[in-house]
TrEMBL record:
This is TIGR03084 family metal-binding protein. It holds the Pfam family MDMPI_N. The lineage of its organism: Bacteria, Pseudomonadati, Pseudomonadota, Alphaproteobacteria, Hyphomicrobiales. It comes from the Bacteria. InterPro entries: CHP03084, DinB/YfiT-like, Maleyloyr_isom, MDMPI_metal-binding. Residues 25-145 form the Mycothiol-dependent maleylpyruvate isomerase metal-binding domain.
């Protein structure tokens, strides 16, 4: 059983309720790389499909991912290439197709053996990690939509998988920047949306990150700068990590500058 698959379904349904009420705003430009709301939904939808191929049909994954990369090699941006591969799917039809696929793949993924391996972004990982990454991307990219529409988000304890991913990518956040991984791993103590305390790492008095689990998830997914959230960060290693945290694969990415990602 993979609980993150059920969390993805629930998170997708929650995001869908926001989108259903705002179909007329799909052309609105968000604070994330000047993507429109339509671009955000396309991105989530397309990469959900790619992940499903990566798990169940390696040949289909390689064909589709190759087609996307060929467009990018030809000068297309990721947004433009995704739009082409989705045949310019927009608006309510895009929303409906994204939700239907997200619901279907969540059900398909739920009963998988979590130790099965899949190749994603040039590296092999467990399907549980891949599914958690889809939960993370859905949650993180949706934040840009909540922000631009001026809607306060209510997170649930299903973000625990995202927090755990953030913790597990401590070393990656340094390695992707060709930095030495610190020998000291900070203790992480987060308050969940329901009030439970989630803990990771060895007990420490000198290297600690504590506070809201939602804020921690916002930082490790790079939807907020560490200076724009209320987290208690103690120690040089903890501070450096939070400044450079990156829980997703690919090339190194910088957090948004302070004050540039916020609810309108």
């Amino acid at each position: 059983m993979i609980p993150e698959a059920d969390a993805l379904r629930a998170e997708s349904e929650c995001f869908n309720k926001l989108l259903e009420k705002n179909e007329e705003h799909f052309g609105m430009i968000t604070q994330f790389k000047s993507w429109s709301i339509n671009d955000v939904v396309q991105h989530i939808h397309y990469f959900n499909a790619l992940a499903d191929h990566a798990i169940f049909d390696r040949a289909a994954f390689e064909t589709e991912y190759g087609a996307l990369n060929a467009l990018r090699a030809g000068g297309s941006s990721l947004v433009r290439a995704t739009d082409v591969r989705l045949s310019h799917l927009t608006g309510d039809r895009l929303r409906a197709e994204w939700l239907a696929r997200a619901t279907a793949i969540s059900a398909r993924w739920s009963d998988l053996d979590p130790s099965i391996r899949a190749v994603w972004a040039g590296r092999e990982m467990s399907v549980r990690s891949l599914i958690t990454s889809r939960l993370m991307e859905t949650w993180a990219h949706a934040q840009a939509v909540y922000d631009i529409l001026g809607v306060d988000r209510i997170s649930r304890d299903r973000i625990k998988g995202i927090a755990a991913l953030g913790v597990s990518t401590f070393g990656w956040s340094f390695r992707v920047r060709k930095m030495e991984v610190p020998a000291i791993v900070p203790h992480v103590a987060l308050t969940s949306p329901s009030g439970e305390i989630w803990r990771w790492g060895p007990q420490s008095h000198s290297e600690i990150i504590s506070g809201s689990a939602e804020a921690f998830c916002q930082v490790v997914t790079q939807v907020r700068n560490i200076r724009d959230v209320r987290l208690n960060v103690v120690g040089d290693v903890a501070q450096t990590w939070m400044e450079k945290a990156q829980c997703f694969a690919g090339a190194p990415q910088d957090s948004p500058p302070p004050g540039t990602r916020f609810r309108i």
